[in-house]
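[job 0412] stage=fold_complex status=start
inputs:
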Amino acid sequence: MNLFADALAWLTDPANWTGPFGIPTLTLAHLTYTLLALVLACAVAAPAGWAIGHTGHGRSFAVALAGAARALPSLGLLAFLVLVLGVGLKEVATVVVLVLLAIPPILAGAYAGIDAIPRGTLDSARGVGMTGWQRLWRVEVPLGLPLLLGGVRGASLQVVSTVMIAAFIGLPNLGTYLIAGQRLGDYARMLAGAILVAALALVLDGVLAVAQRLAVPRGVRMATAAVPA
Amino acid sequence: MIEFEGVTKRYSSASGAAVDDFSLVVPRGTTTVLVGSSGCGKTTLLRMVNRMVDPTRGRVLLDGEDVAGRDPVALRRSVGYVMQNSGLLPHRTAAQNVAVVPRLAGRDRAAARSRSLELLELVGLDPELADRYPAQLSGGQQQRVGVARGLAAEGDVLLMDEPFGAVDPVVRGELQHELLRIQRELSRTILFITHDVEEAFLLGEEVVILSRGGHVEQRGTPADVLAAPANEFVAAFVGAHRRDRRLRVDERDGVRLVVDGRDRPLGVLTDEAP
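[job 0412] stage=fold_complex status=done
writing structure:
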């Protein structure tokens, strides 16, 4: 209990809320890496997932990729990339690792979203004379969006927790509190860092959960509501 | 006018033909019903008209022009298509679903909307329901919207793939009579598919009875088929031997009652024209 009280005291100490290693600065840095990685991963994985869902080709490739990515040791990869790219590019190395981590769940969400659309709906979109692109943008993407955002949610949790490893190579973020705390034997600071990361993850997840709900088209929400549970 | 000329479709080289050497002419402004049990290739035949399926051999002509030479997207925009389970887009309202067709044909939003409302009225959908989503409509109402969407195509051909198969019998009857009324007004060239002989006889000016592989067992008016089934398959399919198809007149107190083979009275015989 003492440790929690200490962590709380640390969190509420005004001294920890200012300066280059203050809570706002490091939280912002943590959030910046997370969002940058998610945006880049979406830019790659969403179109790729849509292509797989739209054409029905490449699903086994996506599954294999997701499996491979899960086996990827993030810290090892980060160290390797820093060695290859050079210490001057350690920010780039960090973002690359985070993007690779975020791609599989977003890819799966993008194609699962299209996969889950009833065949009759897609068939009729084709039957009224929509082109492939029109079907993609007017039917598949809007109806698949909630599942895509589900994938982004999953990715965001992984990315938020993995950003911390960048503190090992000297990039300040909330992980810095854990590493510095461990070196100094300052367990209150370590716990405070962990609490901050967890809180950030929960906030991000909450925001994305709301986005996911809003992404369900009105007509579809009514269909779900109409079906008795 | 729709013409099938020696059309064959194989989905894979290993399997047998889904449709084997099928020919048919659907004259302009008439309703032809293809009727057969599942697996007879009727849906395949229908979908060849708007190139949802391409034949392996043979040709399908629309007003004399081979559809194989037409761009599939442009072709589908000009041919009305009504599907079982409506196939409406769940994220668009009834009016928007119908308006998709004129919008794709290049109409502006306002023109598409007014055309859509006009068609929804034609198919007998309560105007208050126009801005509801499919999930808020009953099965019968959804099918009405589906028919309105089919009618929104600017060409005169309307393809209907078991459009009333999934609604309850009472609503089905209503929809069938609405279709007859609409057809009297619009005289579209309709190719209709069903597995229900009663529906085929009610709606079709010509009925084509199919067995496996799109093989034509008999074609003709409903009266022709019922009067002289071409073979045992047709007789069994249309239920020519069924006792409720064998009607006779029973005179009672000077009134001529029509009764079926189970002695159920069906109506009264009169000399008045309907």
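[job 0412] summary: The CA atoms of residues 31 and 160 of chain A lie 8 Å apart.
[job 0412] exit 0
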